[in-house]
Write a structure and sequence with these properties.
It contains eight helices and twelve strands. By secondary structure, the protein is α/β, with parallel strands linked by helices. It has two domains: 122 residues, 3-Layer(aba) Sandwich (Rossmann fold); 95 residues, Orthogonal Bundle (Arc Repressor Mutant, subunit A). The strands form three sheets. It has a five-stranded parallel sheet, sandwiched between helices. It has a four-stranded antiparallel sheet with strand order 6-7-8-9, with no helix packed on it. A three-stranded antiparallel sheet has the order 10-12-11. Helix 3 links the parallel strand 3 and strand 4. Helix 2 packs parallel to helix 3 and helix 6 crosses helix 7. It is elongated.
Length: 225
């Protein structure tokens, strides 16, 4: 497993590196200290996961995340002192897979990274093109979504959300299950606005007004055929 950390504080990089060496020795950690260097490193090295600070000396970590999403769906864990709910939501909506606030426990960081990798792997199913409805197809091998014969670009979180609904097509997926399976048990679910992610997904799928992804008020969401 290869990870990239984009962080300007040397002490944080050193501590994360030590945690990897002692608790996950088979993993390797590459570091970039500016946002632009980080984007270039991710493009060159193609890591399995990215650990990203928001407060970088050259460009915002949010811009780094946006730039990475232009060419990669690599899982991204944001690691930052910025604890406002608006920042958390911004990071998740931009395509981050988890959001960890400093100061943090390094064992918890490694556990959260492994959880993100497990969820990402789980979303990569073995089947090829699956017809979900007359309008929607999902290629689970290449993680591509096609609506009305048009390729739709989704963030990793949006893709996993769609896959979860597709795997339970015709069944209501409760809100708490969505939170647990998409963001994990350890994530602060109170900061996740599931409705906003569903709205963004519907817009990309051209499901407005919604006929494909339907809200069962008080229960959850269901993907209809």
């Amino acid at each position: 497993m290869k990870a990239t950390i984009i962080e300007d504080e040397e002490s944080i990089i050193d501590a994360v590196n030590v945690a990897f060496e002692f608790r996950w020795p088979e993993a390797s950690l590459l570091a970039a200290r500016t946002g632009k260097e980080g984007v270039a490193l991710v493009k060159k090295e193609v890591p399995d996961i990215v650990i990203l600070d928001i407060n970088l000396p050259d460009i915002s970590g949010f811009q780094v995340l946006k730039d990475i999403r232009e060419f990669s769906s690599v899982p991204v864990v944001i690691l930052t002192v910025r604890a406002d709910d608006s920042d958390v939501l911004h990071g998740l909506e931009a395509g981050a897979d988890d959001y960890i606030i400093k100061p943090f426990n390094y064992l918890n960081l490694l556990a959260r990274i492994k959880a993100v990798l497990r969820r990402t792997e789980k979303a990569s199913l073995k089947e090829n093109n699956i017809v979900i409805s007359s309008r929607l197809k999902i290629n689970f091998v290449n993680q591509k979504v096609i609506v009305d014969n048009r390729l739709v670009k989704l963030t990793p979180v949006e893709y996993r959300l769609l896959v979860l609904l597709a795997k339970n097509k015709g069944k209501v997926v409760p809100y708490d299950r969505i939170t647990e399976e998409i963001w994990g048990k350890d994530f602060g679910g109170e900061t996740v606005n599931i409705r906003s992610f569903i709205q963004r997904l519907r817009k990309k799928l051209q499901d407005v007004p919604p006929h494909m992804i339907v809200n069962k008020y008080g229960s959850g969401y269901v993907l209809k055929g």
